[in-house]
Design a protein that fits this description.
PyrdxlP-dep_Trfase_major; 17 helices; Aminotransferase_I/II_large; 7-stranded mixed β-sheet; alpha/beta; pyridoxal phosphate binding; 3-stranded antiparallel β-sheet; globular
Length: 426
Protein backbone atom coordinates (compact mmCIF):
# COMPACT_ATOMS: atom_id res chain seq x y z
CA UNK A 1 0.00 0.00 0.00
CA UNK A 2 1.31 3.44 -0.93
CA UNK A 3 2.33 5.69 1.92
CA UNK A 4 0.31 8.74 2.79
CA UNK A 5 3.20 10.92 1.64
CA UNK A 6 3.25 9.19 -1.74
CA UNK A 7 -0.46 9.75 -2.15
CA UNK A 8 -0.08 13.44 -1.30
CA UNK A 9 2.77 13.77 -3.80
CA UNK A 10 0.29 12.72 -6.53
CA UNK A 11 -2.10 15.44 -5.50
CA UNK A 12 -1.90 19.20 -5.75
CA UNK A 13 -3.80 21.87 -3.86
CA UNK A 14 -5.28 24.42 -6.23
CA UNK A 15 -7.13 27.23 -4.57
CA UNK A 16 -9.89 25.56 -2.58
CA UNK A 17 -10.00 22.19 -4.37
CA UNK A 18 -7.73 19.19 -4.58
CA UNK A 19 -6.50 18.16 -8.04
CA UNK A 20 -5.59 14.56 -8.91
CA UNK A 21 -3.42 14.54 -11.98
CA UNK A 22 -4.97 17.15 -14.24
CA UNK A 23 -8.56 16.94 -12.95
CA UNK A 24 -9.80 19.17 -10.16
CA UNK A 25 -12.12 17.38 -7.74
CA UNK A 26 -14.44 20.39 -7.89
CA UNK A 27 -14.91 19.93 -11.67
CA UNK A 28 -16.31 16.40 -11.83
CA UNK A 29 -19.72 17.69 -12.89
CA UNK A 30 -18.68 20.85 -14.75
CA UNK A 31 -19.89 19.35 -18.04
CA UNK A 32 -23.45 18.83 -16.73
CA UNK A 33 -25.95 21.24 -18.27
CA UNK A 34 -29.40 21.98 -16.80
CA UNK A 35 -32.01 19.56 -18.12
CA UNK A 36 -34.84 21.01 -20.20
CA UNK A 37 -38.01 21.62 -18.25
CA UNK A 38 -40.71 18.99 -18.46
CA UNK A 39 -43.33 20.44 -20.83
CA UNK A 40 -46.19 19.50 -18.50
CA UNK A 41 -44.66 20.25 -15.10
CA UNK A 42 -43.29 23.51 -16.47
CA UNK A 43 -46.84 24.71 -17.11
CA UNK A 44 -47.72 24.34 -13.45
CA UNK A 45 -44.56 26.18 -12.39
CA UNK A 46 -45.45 29.11 -14.64
CA UNK A 47 -49.04 29.11 -13.38
CA UNK A 48 -47.98 29.21 -9.74
CA UNK A 49 -45.64 32.14 -10.42
CA UNK A 50 -48.40 34.20 -12.06
CA UNK A 51 -49.95 36.71 -9.59
CA UNK A 52 -53.07 37.30 -11.73
CA UNK A 53 -56.37 36.63 -9.89
CA UNK A 54 -57.88 35.46 -13.19
CA UNK A 55 -55.31 32.75 -13.95
CA UNK A 56 -56.53 29.32 -15.02
CA UNK A 57 -54.52 26.09 -15.10
CA UNK A 58 -55.76 23.59 -17.66
CA UNK A 59 -52.42 21.89 -18.01
CA UNK A 60 -52.32 19.69 -14.91
CA UNK A 61 -53.12 16.01 -15.37
CA UNK A 62 -54.85 15.57 -12.02
CA UNK A 63 -58.52 15.66 -11.16
CA UNK A 64 -60.00 18.75 -9.56
CA UNK A 65 -63.52 19.34 -8.24
CA UNK A 66 -65.79 22.12 -9.47
CA UNK A 67 -64.04 24.53 -7.11
CA UNK A 68 -60.68 23.67 -8.65
CA UNK A 69 -59.55 21.79 -5.53
CA UNK A 70 -57.81 18.39 -5.30
CA UNK A 71 -60.07 15.53 -4.24
CA UNK A 72 -59.54 12.59 -1.91
CA UNK A 73 -62.22 9.97 -2.49
CA UNK A 74 -64.32 8.91 0.49
CA UNK A 75 -63.56 5.25 -0.27
CA UNK A 76 -59.87 6.11 0.06
CA UNK A 77 -60.45 7.90 3.38
CA UNK A 78 -62.35 4.89 4.71
CA UNK A 79 -59.60 2.49 3.58
CA UNK A 80 -57.04 4.67 5.37
CA UNK A 81 -59.12 4.61 8.54
CA UNK A 82 -59.11 0.82 8.45
CA UNK A 83 -55.36 0.69 7.83
CA UNK A 84 -54.39 3.14 10.58
CA UNK A 85 -52.56 1.36 13.38
CA UNK A 86 -53.44 -2.11 12.10
CA UNK A 87 -50.48 -2.86 9.85
CA UNK A 88 -46.74 -3.01 10.29
CA UNK A 89 -44.30 -1.24 8.00
CA UNK A 90 -42.37 -4.30 6.80
CA UNK A 91 -41.15 -4.63 3.23
CA UNK A 92 -43.47 -5.98 0.60
CA UNK A 93 -42.04 -8.82 -1.53
CA UNK A 94 -40.17 -7.74 -4.67
CA UNK A 95 -43.32 -8.47 -6.66
CA UNK A 96 -45.46 -6.34 -4.36
CA UNK A 97 -48.78 -6.89 -2.63
CA UNK A 98 -50.27 -10.21 -3.69
CA UNK A 99 -53.77 -9.02 -2.78
CA UNK A 100 -53.44 -5.79 -4.73
CA UNK A 101 -52.20 -7.72 -7.77
CA UNK A 102 -55.09 -10.21 -7.55
CA UNK A 103 -57.66 -7.42 -7.48
CA UNK A 104 -55.92 -5.50 -10.26
CA UNK A 105 -56.00 -8.52 -12.55
CA UNK A 106 -59.73 -8.95 -11.95
CA UNK A 107 -60.24 -5.31 -12.88
CA UNK A 108 -58.25 -5.56 -16.12
CA UNK A 109 -58.94 -9.13 -17.29
CA UNK A 110 -62.42 -9.69 -15.80
CA UNK A 111 -63.74 -10.93 -12.48
CA UNK A 112 -64.13 -14.49 -13.78
CA UNK A 113 -61.18 -14.52 -16.17
CA UNK A 114 -60.03 -18.00 -17.18
CA UNK A 115 -56.49 -16.65 -17.43
CA UNK A 116 -56.49 -15.75 -13.74
CA UNK A 117 -57.89 -19.15 -12.80
CA UNK A 118 -55.27 -20.91 -14.93
CA UNK A 119 -52.49 -18.77 -13.39
CA UNK A 120 -51.29 -17.70 -16.81
CA UNK A 121 -50.67 -14.06 -15.92
CA UNK A 122 -47.27 -12.87 -14.70
CA UNK A 123 -47.92 -9.74 -12.66
CA UNK A 124 -46.01 -7.46 -10.28
CA UNK A 125 -46.88 -4.30 -8.40
CA UNK A 126 -45.28 -1.29 -10.06
CA UNK A 127 -44.59 2.37 -9.35
CA UNK A 128 -47.88 3.43 -10.94
CA UNK A 129 -48.33 3.24 -14.71
CA UNK A 130 -45.01 4.91 -15.46
CA UNK A 131 -43.14 2.26 -13.49
CA UNK A 132 -45.13 -0.51 -15.18
CA UNK A 133 -44.16 0.81 -18.61
CA UNK A 134 -40.52 1.10 -17.59
CA UNK A 135 -40.39 -2.43 -16.17
CA UNK A 136 -41.85 -3.78 -19.39
CA UNK A 137 -39.47 -1.73 -21.54
CA UNK A 138 -36.48 -3.14 -19.65
CA UNK A 139 -37.96 -6.66 -19.87
CA UNK A 140 -38.39 -6.23 -23.63
CA UNK A 141 -34.80 -5.05 -24.03
CA UNK A 142 -33.39 -7.86 -21.91
CA UNK A 143 -35.18 -10.77 -23.58
CA UNK A 144 -35.78 -9.45 -27.11
CA UNK A 145 -32.80 -7.11 -27.50
CA UNK A 146 -33.26 -6.67 -31.25
CA UNK A 147 -36.91 -5.62 -30.98
CA UNK A 148 -38.32 -2.11 -31.20
CA UNK A 149 -41.52 -0.43 -30.00
CA UNK A 150 -44.11 1.36 -32.12
CA UNK A 151 -45.62 4.34 -30.27
CA UNK A 152 -48.68 6.35 -31.39
CA UNK A 153 -48.19 9.83 -32.81
CA UNK A 154 -48.88 11.72 -30.65
CA UNK A 155 -48.67 10.08 -27.25
CA UNK A 156 -47.96 11.00 -23.65
CA UNK A 157 -44.49 12.55 -23.88
CA UNK A 158 -43.01 10.35 -21.15
CA UNK A 159 -43.62 7.20 -23.21
CA UNK A 160 -40.76 8.24 -25.46
CA UNK A 161 -38.50 8.86 -22.46
CA UNK A 162 -39.29 5.47 -20.93
CA UNK A 163 -38.39 3.32 -23.92
CA UNK A 164 -35.47 5.61 -24.82
CA UNK A 165 -33.88 5.18 -21.40
CA UNK A 166 -34.47 1.42 -21.61
CA UNK A 167 -32.54 1.62 -24.92
CA UNK A 168 -35.37 0.15 -26.95
CA UNK A 169 -35.44 1.63 -30.50
CA UNK A 170 -38.68 3.48 -31.28
CA UNK A 171 -40.89 3.91 -34.30
CA UNK A 172 -44.19 5.79 -34.45
CA UNK A 173 -47.49 4.96 -36.04
CA UNK A 174 -50.05 7.48 -37.24
CA UNK A 175 -52.98 7.91 -34.88
CA UNK A 176 -54.51 11.39 -34.83
CA UNK A 177 -56.11 13.23 -37.77
CA UNK A 178 -55.58 16.99 -37.20
CA UNK A 179 -58.23 18.14 -39.67
CA UNK A 180 -61.07 16.09 -38.17
CA UNK A 181 -59.67 16.20 -34.61
CA UNK A 182 -60.38 12.47 -34.62
CA UNK A 183 -58.81 9.08 -35.24
CA UNK A 184 -56.79 8.57 -38.43
CA UNK A 185 -58.00 4.99 -38.67
CA UNK A 186 -56.98 4.31 -42.28
CA UNK A 187 -53.40 5.47 -41.69
CA UNK A 188 -53.21 3.63 -38.37
CA UNK A 189 -54.23 0.36 -40.02
CA UNK A 190 -51.80 0.95 -42.86
CA UNK A 191 -48.93 1.43 -40.41
CA UNK A 192 -49.90 -1.73 -38.49
CA UNK A 193 -49.98 -3.64 -41.77
CA UNK A 194 -46.62 -2.32 -42.99
CA UNK A 195 -44.76 -2.96 -39.74
CA UNK A 196 -42.62 -6.12 -39.68
CA UNK A 197 -44.45 -9.18 -38.43
CA UNK A 198 -44.12 -9.68 -34.69
CA UNK A 199 -43.66 -5.98 -33.84
CA UNK A 200 -44.37 -4.46 -30.42
CA UNK A 201 -47.05 -1.76 -30.25
CA UNK A 202 -47.94 0.58 -27.41
CA UNK A 203 -51.70 1.08 -27.29
CA UNK A 204 -53.78 3.32 -25.00
CA UNK A 205 -56.59 1.15 -23.64
CA UNK A 206 -58.94 4.14 -23.20
CA UNK A 207 -58.91 7.95 -22.95
CA UNK A 208 -55.89 8.37 -25.22
CA UNK A 209 -53.46 10.93 -23.83
CA UNK A 210 -53.16 13.65 -25.11
CA UNK A 211 -55.90 13.51 -27.78
CA UNK A 212 -58.88 11.98 -25.97
CA UNK A 213 -59.54 10.08 -29.21
CA UNK A 214 -60.25 6.34 -28.93
CA UNK A 215 -61.10 3.73 -31.57
CA UNK A 216 -64.69 2.53 -31.57
CA UNK A 217 -65.46 -1.03 -30.47
CA UNK A 218 -65.70 -2.13 -34.09
CA UNK A 219 -62.39 -0.44 -34.91
CA UNK A 220 -60.75 -2.21 -31.96
CA UNK A 221 -62.02 -5.50 -33.39
CA UNK A 222 -60.44 -4.70 -36.76
CA UNK A 223 -57.18 -3.75 -35.05
CA UNK A 224 -57.20 -7.00 -33.06
CA UNK A 225 -57.80 -9.04 -36.21
CA UNK A 226 -54.91 -7.36 -38.03
CA UNK A 227 -52.63 -7.88 -35.03
CA UNK A 228 -53.50 -11.57 -35.19
CA UNK A 229 -52.61 -11.73 -38.88
CA UNK A 230 -49.34 -9.86 -38.32
CA UNK A 231 -48.51 -11.57 -35.00
CA UNK A 232 -47.96 -8.17 -33.38
CA UNK A 233 -47.64 -7.84 -29.60
CA UNK A 234 -50.08 -5.35 -27.99
CA UNK A 235 -48.91 -3.57 -24.86
CA UNK A 236 -51.78 -1.62 -23.30
CA UNK A 237 -51.20 1.41 -21.11
CA UNK A 238 -54.42 1.67 -19.10
CA UNK A 239 -54.07 4.79 -16.97
CA UNK A 240 -57.75 5.78 -16.97
CA UNK A 241 -59.87 2.67 -16.37
CA UNK A 242 -63.17 3.91 -14.95
CA UNK A 243 -62.14 7.53 -15.24
CA UNK A 244 -62.88 7.73 -18.98
CA UNK A 245 -66.52 6.68 -19.16
CA UNK A 246 -67.35 6.15 -15.49
CA UNK A 247 -67.54 2.37 -16.09
CA UNK A 248 -64.37 0.28 -15.57
CA UNK A 249 -65.79 -2.59 -17.61
CA UNK A 250 -66.50 -0.38 -20.59
CA UNK A 251 -63.06 1.23 -20.37
CA UNK A 252 -61.40 -2.22 -20.48
CA UNK A 253 -63.27 -3.23 -23.64
CA UNK A 254 -60.24 -3.01 -25.92
CA UNK A 255 -58.29 -5.39 -23.69
CA UNK A 256 -61.21 -7.82 -23.49
CA UNK A 257 -61.51 -7.84 -27.30
CA UNK A 258 -57.85 -8.78 -27.67
CA UNK A 259 -58.21 -11.48 -25.03
CA UNK A 260 -61.25 -12.94 -26.78
CA UNK A 261 -59.23 -13.10 -29.99
CA UNK A 262 -56.51 -15.15 -28.32
CA UNK A 263 -53.72 -12.59 -28.05
CA UNK A 264 -51.00 -12.68 -25.45
CA UNK A 265 -50.93 -9.12 -24.14
CA UNK A 266 -49.12 -6.81 -21.75
CA UNK A 267 -50.91 -4.29 -19.55
CA UNK A 268 -49.81 -1.35 -17.43
CA UNK A 269 -52.38 -0.27 -14.83
CA UNK A 270 -52.41 2.86 -12.71
CA UNK A 271 -54.52 3.99 -9.76
CA UNK A 272 -53.40 7.62 -9.95
CA UNK A 273 -56.42 8.92 -11.84
CA UNK A 274 -59.25 6.52 -11.05
CA UNK A 275 -58.64 6.49 -7.28
CA UNK A 276 -56.86 9.82 -6.97
CA UNK A 277 -53.76 8.07 -5.58
CA UNK A 278 -51.33 10.25 -7.55
CA UNK A 279 -48.65 10.50 -4.90
CA UNK A 280 -48.94 6.91 -3.68
CA UNK A 281 -47.54 5.52 -6.98
CA UNK A 282 -49.67 2.38 -7.15
CA UNK A 283 -49.78 0.32 -10.31
CA UNK A 284 -49.55 -3.15 -11.77
CA UNK A 285 -47.69 -4.66 -14.71
CA UNK A 286 -49.10 -7.88 -16.13
CA UNK A 287 -48.15 -10.15 -19.02
CA UNK A 288 -50.43 -12.93 -20.23
CA UNK A 289 -48.34 -16.03 -20.91
CA UNK A 290 -48.78 -19.38 -22.67
CA UNK A 291 -49.14 -21.34 -19.44
CA UNK A 292 -48.54 -21.25 -15.71
CA UNK A 293 -44.92 -22.37 -16.00
CA UNK A 294 -44.10 -19.53 -18.39
CA UNK A 295 -45.90 -17.05 -16.12
CA UNK A 296 -43.78 -18.14 -13.15
CA UNK A 297 -40.60 -17.64 -15.17
CA UNK A 298 -41.65 -14.24 -16.51
CA UNK A 299 -42.68 -12.96 -13.08
CA UNK A 300 -39.34 -14.05 -11.62
CA UNK A 301 -37.51 -12.04 -14.28
CA UNK A 302 -39.69 -8.97 -13.76
CA UNK A 303 -38.82 -9.13 -10.07
CA UNK A 304 -35.13 -9.43 -10.93
CA UNK A 305 -35.37 -6.27 -13.03
CA UNK A 306 -37.19 -4.43 -10.23
CA UNK A 307 -34.68 -5.46 -7.56
CA UNK A 308 -31.79 -3.13 -8.53
CA UNK A 309 -34.22 -0.35 -9.53
CA UNK A 310 -36.13 0.08 -6.27
CA UNK A 311 -35.89 -3.27 -4.45
CA UNK A 312 -39.60 -3.49 -3.70
CA UNK A 313 -42.64 -1.24 -4.15
CA UNK A 314 -44.31 1.03 -1.57
CA UNK A 315 -46.80 -0.31 0.93
CA UNK A 316 -49.48 2.21 1.87
CA UNK A 317 -51.15 2.79 -1.49
CA UNK A 318 -51.19 -0.91 -2.26
CA UNK A 319 -53.13 -1.54 0.95
CA UNK A 320 -55.62 1.18 0.04
CA UNK A 321 -56.28 -0.39 -3.37
CA UNK A 322 -56.51 -3.89 -1.90
CA UNK A 323 -59.06 -2.86 0.72
CA UNK A 324 -61.24 -0.89 -1.71
CA UNK A 325 -61.37 -3.53 -4.42
CA UNK A 326 -61.79 -6.53 -2.10
CA UNK A 327 -64.59 -5.04 0.05
CA UNK A 328 -67.98 -5.07 -1.77
CA UNK A 329 -69.26 -1.95 -0.01
CA UNK A 330 -66.09 0.07 -0.58
CA UNK A 331 -65.84 -1.10 -4.20
CA UNK A 332 -69.44 -0.03 -4.75
CA UNK A 333 -68.63 3.37 -3.25
CA UNK A 334 -65.55 3.66 -5.48
CA UNK A 335 -67.61 2.88 -8.59
CA UNK A 336 -70.02 5.66 -7.65
CA UNK A 337 -67.22 8.14 -6.96
CA UNK A 338 -65.27 7.38 -10.12
CA UNK A 339 -68.48 7.89 -12.12
CA UNK A 340 -68.97 11.27 -10.45
CA UNK A 341 -65.47 12.29 -11.58
CA UNK A 342 -66.02 11.02 -15.12
CA UNK A 343 -69.44 12.68 -15.36
CA UNK A 344 -68.03 16.04 -14.21
CA UNK A 345 -65.41 15.88 -16.96
CA UNK A 346 -68.05 14.98 -19.54
CA UNK A 347 -70.23 17.83 -18.28
CA UNK A 348 -67.40 20.33 -18.61
CA UNK A 349 -66.79 19.20 -22.19
CA UNK A 350 -70.42 19.93 -23.01
CA UNK A 351 -70.30 23.31 -21.26
CA UNK A 352 -67.09 24.42 -23.01
CA UNK A 353 -68.48 23.49 -26.42
CA UNK A 354 -71.81 25.22 -25.74
CA UNK A 355 -70.07 28.41 -24.60
CA UNK A 356 -67.89 28.51 -27.70
CA UNK A 357 -70.87 27.98 -29.98
CA UNK A 358 -72.87 30.72 -28.21
CA UNK A 359 -70.03 33.14 -28.91
CA UNK A 360 -70.53 32.52 -32.61
CA UNK A 361 -67.22 30.81 -33.22
CA UNK A 362 -66.75 30.09 -36.91
CA UNK A 363 -65.00 26.83 -36.05
CA UNK A 364 -66.49 23.44 -35.31
CA UNK A 365 -66.03 22.37 -31.69
CA UNK A 366 -67.73 18.99 -31.96
CA UNK A 367 -64.44 17.29 -31.16
CA UNK A 368 -64.60 18.60 -27.58
CA UNK A 369 -67.56 16.32 -26.83
CA UNK A 370 -66.52 13.53 -29.22
CA UNK A 371 -63.25 13.05 -27.35
CA UNK A 372 -63.18 11.33 -23.97
CA UNK A 373 -61.18 11.33 -20.76
CA UNK A 374 -59.24 13.99 -18.94
CA UNK A 375 -57.78 15.73 -21.98
CA UNK A 376 -59.20 17.62 -24.92
CA UNK A 377 -56.94 18.02 -27.93
CA UNK A 378 -58.24 21.43 -28.91
CA UNK A 379 -56.47 21.92 -32.24
CA UNK A 380 -55.03 25.26 -31.15
CA UNK A 381 -51.55 26.15 -32.40
CA UNK A 382 -48.55 26.92 -30.16
CA UNK A 383 -48.91 30.61 -31.05
CA UNK A 384 -52.56 30.59 -30.00
CA UNK A 385 -51.67 28.87 -26.74
CA UNK A 386 -49.01 31.51 -26.12
CA UNK A 387 -51.64 34.22 -26.59
CA UNK A 388 -53.92 32.47 -24.10
CA UNK A 389 -51.12 32.57 -21.56
CA UNK A 390 -49.80 36.06 -22.25
CA UNK A 391 -53.15 37.83 -22.68
CA UNK A 392 -55.55 35.78 -20.56
CA UNK A 393 -53.32 34.02 -17.98
CA UNK A 394 -54.55 30.59 -19.14
CA UNK A 395 -51.97 27.84 -18.88
CA UNK A 396 -51.80 24.64 -20.93
CA UNK A 397 -49.21 22.66 -22.89
CA UNK A 398 -48.26 24.27 -26.20
CA UNK A 399 -49.73 21.39 -28.23
CA UNK A 400 -53.17 22.74 -27.33
CA UNK A 401 -54.05 19.97 -24.89
CA UNK A 402 -56.66 21.13 -22.38
CA UNK A 403 -56.98 19.29 -19.10
CA UNK A 404 -60.75 19.22 -18.64
CA UNK A 405 -60.17 18.62 -14.92
CA UNK A 406 -59.11 22.26 -14.66
CA UNK A 407 -62.35 23.51 -16.23
CA UNK A 408 -65.08 24.50 -13.76
CA UNK A 409 -68.50 26.14 -13.87
CA UNK A 410 -66.73 29.22 -12.51
CA UNK A 411 -64.13 29.55 -15.29
CA UNK A 412 -65.63 27.81 -18.34
CA UNK A 413 -67.15 31.01 -19.78
CA UNK A 414 -63.87 32.89 -19.32
CA UNK A 415 -61.93 30.03 -20.92
CA UNK A 416 -64.35 29.82 -23.86
CA UNK A 417 -64.18 33.58 -24.45
CA UNK A 418 -60.38 33.51 -24.44
CA UNK A 419 -60.26 30.54 -26.83
CA UNK A 420 -62.74 32.33 -29.10
CA UNK A 421 -60.59 35.48 -29.13
CA UNK A 422 -57.39 33.65 -30.15
CA UNK A 423 -59.06 31.38 -32.74
CA UNK A 424 -61.75 33.56 -34.39
CA UNK A 425 -59.40 34.75 -37.13
CA UNK A 426 -58.26 31.23 -37.98
Amino acid sequence: MASRAAIYRGMMWKGRSWAIGSRSMSSWWSNVEPAPKDPILGVTEAYLADPSPHKVNVGVGAYRDDNGKPVVLECVREAERRIAGNLNMEYLPMGGSIKMIEESLKLAYGEDSEFIKDKRIAAVQSLSGTGACRLFADFQKRFLPDSQIYIPLPTWANHHNIWRDARVPQQTFRYYHPESRGLDFASLMEDFKNAPNGSFFLLHACAHNPTGVDPSEEQWREISHLFKVKNHFPFFDMAYQGFASGDPERDAKAIRIFLEDGHLIGCAQSYAKNMGLYGQRVGCLSLLCEDEMQAVAVKSQLQQIARPMYSNPPLHGAHIVSIILSDPDLKSLWLKEVKVMADRIIGMRKALRENLEKLGSPLSWEHITNQIGMFCYSGMTPDQVDRLTNEFHIYMTRNGRISMAGVTTGNVAYLANAIHEVTKST
